[in-house]
Write a structure and sequence with these properties.
Layout lengths: L1 H11 L5 H5 L3 E5 L5 H7 L1 H11 L3 E4 L4 H9 L5 E4 L1 H11 L2 E7 L2 E8 L13 E5 L5 H12 L8 E5 L3 H9 L5 E4 L1 H5 L3 H4 L2 E10 L3 E4 L5 H13 L4 H7 L6 E4 L2 H4 L6 H9 L1
Parallel strand pairs: 1-2, 1-3, 6-7, 6-8
Antiparallel strand pairs: 3-10, 4-10, 4-11, 5-8, 5-9
């Protein structure tokens, strides 16, 4: 298992062995919410499941950050993409990608603080740092909007500081580098217990659509339908039970227009952020 995880982490970083490059593979793109090593470990059950169903090699790939991941998605680098709802909606509306499935439950946007040195009031965030996983994360956009409504403007009253993982967001709080942070229940679930118990949820800000699976616009309809069927069946398999037990999700549902349009409120700001 250690060797396999090391191999997958290498693939995520673009350091694939020559034999892997020589073998045609189905590429599963996963939004970079973890380090390469952790991402490979977390999504290994899904990779193995898809490989078994497709009867061909499946490789996990990602990107250095959210913006570059979205660029890779739109470039058609992935055969199946797992991405944030606002990125999925943009890919659907602007480039014809096909949403096939979505995790449940929703993500939530949580404002968290350290139990050891919390802010006495939200206004005390002025002049301090807010730890976030990526400014382009839909959960971060929801939090920034909420703080703006409270009279706190990003860049003027506080500084957003990006971190590579939810665990490093938590450590930034505990170490005192940041005064508050934005995360999700799933992010907390995947944060080590020794860090998690030193955090407190200050505010549940919003419920956000969970990650969406996208099929490429040029994929044959029959293949897209098979992928949808397999993804919906995934939670009831041994691999699916293993995966869900470590991620904070409970299932997979079909993506439909009603679910997808929930991300529309974030599209304007997402387009603006991606254009900079």
């Amino acid at each position: 298992m250690t060797r396999l995880i090391g191999l997958l982490a290498g693939l995520l970083l673009g350091v694939a062995p020559l034999f892997a490059r020589a073998t045609p593979a189905f590429i599963l793109g996963v939004i970079p919410i973890h380090s390469a090593r952790v991402l490979a470990e977390r999504y290994e059950p899904m990779r193995a499941y898809l490989e078994r169903r497709l009867n061909q090699p499946v490789r996990i790939e990602s990107a250095a950050d959210f913006a570059r991941f979205q660029a890779r998605t739109l470039n058609g680098d992935f055969d199946l993409t797992l991405t944030a709802a606002h990125f999925a909606r943009l890919a659907q509306k602007d480039a014809g990608f096909n949403p096939v499935a979505q995790f449940t439950p929703d993500h939530d946007t949580l404002l968290v603080m350290s139990t050891e040195h919390p802010l006495a009031r939200l206004a005390d965030l002025r002049g301090k740092q807010l730890a976030v996983i990526d400014r382009l994360a839909i959960t971060v956009m929801a939090a920034v909007s909420y703080l703006d409504e409270q009279g706190l403007e990003a860049g003027r009253d506080y500084r957003e500081v990006e971190h590579r993982t939810h665990a490093s967001v938590a450590y930034s709080l505990i170490s005192g580098l940041s005064a508050a942070a934005v995360t999700t229940s799933q992010g907390l679930e995947q944060t080590p217990e020794n860090l998690r118990r030193r955090l407190r949820v200050e505010k549940h800000i919003a419920d956000i659509p969970a990650f969406v699976f996208l099929a490429r616009p040029d994929a044959p309809a029959a293949q897209t339908e098979r992928l949808k069927r397999w993804l919906l069946a995934f939670p009831d398999t041994a691999e699916g039970i293993d995966f869900l037990g470590h991620t904070g999700y409970s299932g997979v549902v079909a993506a439909d227009e009603q679910r997808m349009k929930r991300a529309d409120a974030y599209l304007k700001v997402t387009r603006q952020a991606l254009s900079h």
